[in-house]
Amino acid sequence: MRVGIPHSLDKAEVRRRLESRMPELANHIPGGFAQVDHAWLGEDRMRLSVGALGQAVVALLDVEERQVVVTVELPPQLAFFGGAVEQAIRNQGTKLLR
Question: In sequence order, what E strands does 1-98 have?
Answer without folding.
Answer: 2-6, 35-42, 45-52, 55-63, 67-72
